[in-house]
């Protein structure tokens, strides 16, 4: 059975109150997503023991780290937590090796352990060990910061916008490593971001937070499909489907991806037949018609059923659909919704104008 993290924190800063009750899976990446000032960092700091709210409970994989009712509070150094920040914060006067070894020595562990080697390999920093931090790229520095946290074998890894200070190119460079962490790490990760793109690429579980409160917490597609939340209204609102590569069509530079009950053609994907891939579909790329379009340039046309609709004051309607059992969001105008008389339960066709692979 998957181990679980239970948190309950209440904290009052005067102008801001955190009141967060969360149950997170004991594996995979849980992403905390919310606007600036919504309390994401404060929640991570509570989990790390850097804040001590008067009301707090935290248990990680069956161990109680904090329980205000029983006056239990493990100080930060007794919590097996790795913390990666926006900036790598490496010791500038120490080599990469010494930066990593610094923490290991403090806990009486050797650099030569199998776990350390595995981490260096996972983050491809084995060839950077002699470098000083100022001779590393921003992405390499961040990979060293992640390795420094992981070699201490934490029970939980906290990552607070680890890519926020990287430019687009460096983000693209580090993302594959984060995806690899998602696939290979056997500890739970709590990852803070503002970016829908990072949500699509990394989240297994998604928590939407606003004004210090948890609005939703659940498997990625469940939270993305909550049309009552700001995340579904955002102009970058999207859905993520996981599928497998069925075939490549070299003549047309297309790849066919199969999902449970649906197939999509994508611009050719660098993955082998049978590989698992995530595909993101923006709500703004989905249009709806009542009949199967007979002459259309759009390759991906699928039958769907409307399961929910929310009209917004800005003239936009968010439509939630099911394609087979796969959830999908569409942003259309309220005028189109009225003209087509779209109602919950109606069978329609969706045309998906653009799709892209996220890993
Ligand atoms: N020590 C403190 N004392 C008083 N208020 C604080 C303190 N730390 C944070 N706050 C306030 O708490 C609120 C939540 O801050 P927090 O940094 O947790 O938000 P966030 O969601 O991580 O934001 P961002 O995405 O911009 O990093 C903010 O209004 C912030 O000003």
Provide structural commentary:
The chain has helices at 40-48, 96-106, 114-122, 138-150, 168-184, 196-202, 220-224, 230-233, 334-339, and strands spanning 4-12, 17-25, 29-33, 55-60, 63-67, 72-73, 81-84, 156-160, 189-193, 205-210, 213-219, 238-249, 254-259, 262-267, 276-282, 286-289, 300-311, 316-323, 326-333, 347-352, 356-357. The strands form 4 sheets. The chain has a 6-stranded mixed β-sheet with strand order 7-8-9-3-10-11, with helices on both faces. A 5-stranded antiparallel β-sheet has the order 2-1-4-5-6, with helices on one face. It has a 5-stranded antiparallel β-sheet with strand order 14-13-12-15-21. The chain is α+β, with helices and mostly antiparallel strands and 359 residues long. The mean pLDDT is 92. It is globular. Bound molecules: adenosine-5'-triphosphate (ATP).
């Amino acid at each position: 059975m998957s181990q679980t993290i239970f948190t309950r924190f209440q904290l009052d800063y005067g102008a801001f109150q955190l009141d967060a009750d969360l149950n997170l899976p004991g594996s995979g990446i849980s992403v905390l997503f919310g606007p600036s000032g919504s309390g994401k960092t404060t929640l991570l700091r509570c989990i790390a023991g850097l804040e001590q709210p008067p009301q707090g409970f935290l248990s990680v994989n069956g161990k109680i780290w904090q329980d205000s009712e029983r006056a239990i509070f493990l100080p930060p150094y007794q919590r097996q937590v790795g913390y990666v920040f926006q900036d790598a914060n490496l010791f500038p006067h120490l080599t990469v090796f010494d930066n990593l070894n610094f923490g290991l020595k403090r806990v009486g562990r050797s650099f030569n352990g199998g776990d350390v080697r595995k981490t260096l390999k996972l983050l491809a920093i084995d060839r950077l060990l002699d470098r000083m931090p100022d001779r590393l790229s921003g992405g390499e520095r961040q990979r060293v910061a992640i390795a420094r946290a992981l070699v201490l074998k934490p029970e939980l890894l906290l990552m607070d916008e680890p890519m926020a200070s990287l430019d687009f190119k460096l983000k693209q460079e580090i993302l594959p490593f984060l995806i690899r962490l998602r696939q290979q790490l056997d500890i739970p990760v709590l990852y803070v971001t503002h970016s829908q793109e990072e949500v699509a690429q990394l989240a297994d579980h998604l928590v939407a937070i606003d004004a210090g409160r948890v609005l939703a917490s659940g498997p990625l597609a469940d939270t993305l499909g909550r049309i009552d939340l700001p995340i579904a209204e955002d102009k970058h609102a999207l859905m993520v489907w996981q599928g497998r590569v069925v075939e490549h069509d070299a003549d047309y530079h297309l790849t066919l991806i199969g999902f449970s009950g649906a197939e999509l053609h994508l611009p050719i994907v660098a993955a082998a037949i049978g590989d698992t891939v995530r595909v993101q579909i923006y709500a703004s790329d989905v249009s709806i018609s009542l009949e199967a379009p007979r002459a259309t340039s759009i390759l991906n046309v699928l039958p769907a059923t409307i399961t929910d609709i929310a009209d917004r004051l800005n003239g936009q309607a968010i439509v939630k659909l099911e394609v087979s059992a796969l959830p999908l969001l569409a942003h259309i105008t309220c005028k189109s919704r009225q003209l087509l008389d779209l109602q919950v339960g109606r069978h329609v066709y969706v045309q998906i104008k653009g799709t892209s692979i996220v890993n």
